[in-house]
Backbone:
């Protein structure tokens, strides 16, 4: 039986690559080949948007001196030299001891607020100490103005948050006993709250700081705050005492503080 004639056909295992620049056709309209690389995609986009380009040549030219000066000044205005700014506020607070009870403390409290904007960064906190910033802390804590005392306590609290370097400086320079004095004797409740906040930051995960607090009868001072009629103060004291018991478990046996905190305060406040 005769075999039907078939046209000759060479079939390669791999198809031959199409020549560069080949295009697919659809009817009489040529379609560009889809890009297969980033360079191809860029070329495709440039070709597709060519009609949208400006009809004239670029007028790019070197910047003149006046424009360059304006741009440099604008960039400088947006850039803050943190250490220089801290030093400026420290210089203001160096005179805080001269403030009398009937003076307006706004200038000094504003300086504290500006420092607080920067020292939540650990490196900046360390720089604050290295440029002499800690010298203004005791005068702030002992100011006749509650606003400045509050600010001084908050400075200490922020400086020592998770910062072993500043914690050690604070431990070595008697701030723990000063803060305990404030908690025990200051008549302004907001100052007491901030002082507890600072003590909590100093003693957090720091056995040496906690032992120093205990050596100054700090446990009794903190426990006594639970008897004061202020929810924020009691809450801060409660969490501090619980943290103390976690760090030194023996405190549970010696004082029963933790059970008091858990059962008396938390259950009591939930019923209020």
Residues:
């Amino acid at each position: 039986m005769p075999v039907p004639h078939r046209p000759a056909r060479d079939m390669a295992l791999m198809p031959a690559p199409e020549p560069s620049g080949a295009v697919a056709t659809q009817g009489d309209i040529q379609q560009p080949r889809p890009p297969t690389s980033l360079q191809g995609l860029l070329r495709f986009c440039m070709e597709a948007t060519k009609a949208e380009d400006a009809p004239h040549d670029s007028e790019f030219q070197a910047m003149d001196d006046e424009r360059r000066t304006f741009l440099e000044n604008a960039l400088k205005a947006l850039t803050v030299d943190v250490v220089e700014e801290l030093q400026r506020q420290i210089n203001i607070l160096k005179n805080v001891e001269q403030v009398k009870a009937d003076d307006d403390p706004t200038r000094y409290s504003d300086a504290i607020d500006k420092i607080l904007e920067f020292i939540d960064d650990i490196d900046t906190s360390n720089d604050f100490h290295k440029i002499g910033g800690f010298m203004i802390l005791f005068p702030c804590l002992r100011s006749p103005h509650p606003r400045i005392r509050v600010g001084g306590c908050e400075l200490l609290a922020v400086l020592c948050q998770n910062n072993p370097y500043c914690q050690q400086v604070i431990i070595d320079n008697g701030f723990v006993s000063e803060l305990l004095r404030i908690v025990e004797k200051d008549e302004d409740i907001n100052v007491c709250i901030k002082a507890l906040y600072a003590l909590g930051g100093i003693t957090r995960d720091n056995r040496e700081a906690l032992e120093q607090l205990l050596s100054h009868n700090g446990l009794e001072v903190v426990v006594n705050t639970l008897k004061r009629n202020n929810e924020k103060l009691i809450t801060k004291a409660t969490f501090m005492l619980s943290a103390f018991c976690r760090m030194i478990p023996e405190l549970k046996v010696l004082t029963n503080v933790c059970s008091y905190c858990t059962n008396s305060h938390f259950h009591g406040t939930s019923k209020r």
User: Anything to note?
Assistant: The chain is about 60% helix and 0% strand. The longest helix spans residues 231-247.
